[in-house]
Amino acid sequence: MGTGDALVNNGETPMDLSFRDEDLAFQAEVREFIDKKLPQDVKERYDRGLHFSKEGQVQWQKALYYNGWIAPNWPVEYGGTGWSITQKFIFSQELGRASAPPPIPFGVSMVGPVIYTFGNQEQKDKFLPGILNSDDWWCQGYSEPGSGSDLASLQTKAVRDGDDYVVNGQKIWTSHAQHADWIFCLVRTDSNVKHQEGISFLLIDMKTPGITLKPIIGLDKEHTLNEVFFDDVRVPVANRIGEENKGWTYAKFLLGNERTSIARVAQSKRHVERLREIAKQERVNGGLLEDDRDFMRKLNLIEVDLMALEYTELRMLSMIEAGKKLSAEPSLLKIKGTEIQQRLTELLVESLGMYGAPYEALKKYEGRNEAPVGPDYAHGPMAEHLYLRAASIYGGSNEIQRNIISKMVLGL
Ligand SMILES: Cc1cc2nc3c(=O)[nH]c(=O)nc-3n(C[C@H](O)[C@H](O)[C@H](O)COP(=O)(O)OP(=O)(O)OC[C@H]3O[C@@H](n4cnc5c(N)ncnc54)[C@H](O)[C@@H]3O)c2cc1C
Questions:
Q1: Full-prediction pTM beyond 0.70?
Q2: Residue 399 CB–ligand 1 contact under 6 Å
């Protein structure tokens, strides 16, 4: 029995972790594809933990698209691959192993599934192709000043005027809005009911008059975040997903997918490997770092937790495959996944000793000409460490995820 069969049985039979011949052939095919198609710059940035360049990311996503591999989790009828769990597992393992980034999540992992699940035929025809081929980039307009954890209190208003809504208000922390062609937005369409019951889900063209962006520069000194202002922005009613005032249902569905994709197991496995490579080279107290028992204990403990997370993720995938309903599983993955990411990047910085401290995100990029500080592998960890402080906040803070678990699993 291969991994997939064992997983679908969901723990009722012992797990056999060997791959079948056809799985090994698939693994070889994925490796060859990545070797040939992953642009070097995209690989290097992802490996170092630096932010993507849009150009490189589009090139890589289009390569996945032309091979039919951009959206493994979508139903086949909308452009999915129809892969078994084992194949999906192999694919994500191979992406991580090769430092190949997954597609930017806002289109493929977030709004795409909302559109094919709750949208009408016209919306599917209009939006899904651009998401799959990466011609249309999306951003997420959920959070507002004062409405983050308490998202349902959001105030951005959409008032019906003929065939349009007129939208006024402000979103904040909108990642990569400066690259986006479209924004999916939660807006208030009824203020006289319980908060959750007066929200609608709109798809808004970023070029619409009345939209302005203001950059927010992060702790890592990079521009990935934005404020987005809406001033009498006219949005066709045809761009509303599902029913008016039912947006909270679609919003929650999307958040489940978002939290699952934040776990980033394959990338964390690559970080563990990286730390083991660094430990073979860095010297400490007259010996190699890999001989430092305290350091290796920390690394091994993280690896054990990561392994447990990986099996939790696989169990969740097998539940989805078996048509079972999820409850707090995405919250669990989000908490553990982000804690592990933070522990790993903290240890990466620690492993570099004094070379870990300088902030050198721009090493080879953007015309830098002074000599870098420290060995080549020292460039990136501090930038990623700083950015990932936010991982326990974005996608819904980890405290809120604990509240969800206490309610849904413990019944508190
Ligand atoms: C890097 C980054 C990228 C982001 N990208 C996006 C994006 O693209 N689109 C988008 O819409 N949003 C985005 N966000 C926003 C993110 O979803 C919110 O920051 C998050 O939901 C927390 O909301 P808040 O910042 O308003 O904090 P608050 O809700 O004010 O929370 C402040 C603190 O109080 C705690 N807290 C609040 N309520 C409770 C409670 N009931 N129980 C226990 N603790 C509580 C929180 O855990 C947190 O520690 C991003 C955020 C960051 C940092």
A1: yes
A2: yes
The closest-lying atom of ligand 1 relative to the alpha carbon of residue 143 is 11
Contact indicator for 242, 250 with CB cutoff of 8 Å: yes
Q: What is the pLDDT of residues 299-345, one digit of tens each?
A: 999 999 999 999 998 888 888 878 888 889 999 999 999 999 999 99
* Ligand 1 pocket, residue 231 CB under 6 Å: no
User: Could you tell me the domains of the chain?
Assistant: 3-103 (1.10.540.10), 138-251 (2.40.110.10), 262-408 (1.20.140.10)
Which string of DSSP letters, residue by residue, matches 137-191? -EEEE--BTTBSTTGGG---EEEEETTEEEEEEEE-S-TTGGG-SEEEEEEES-S
User: Using CA atoms, how far apart are residues 220 and 225, in angstroms rounded to an integer?
Assistant: 11
How, if at all, do strands 199-205 and 287-288 pair?
Answer: unpaired
For residue 136, report the phi and psi dihedrals to the nearest 5 degrees.
Answer: -110, 125
How many CA atoms, within 13 angstroms, populate the side-chain half-sphere of residue 388?
28
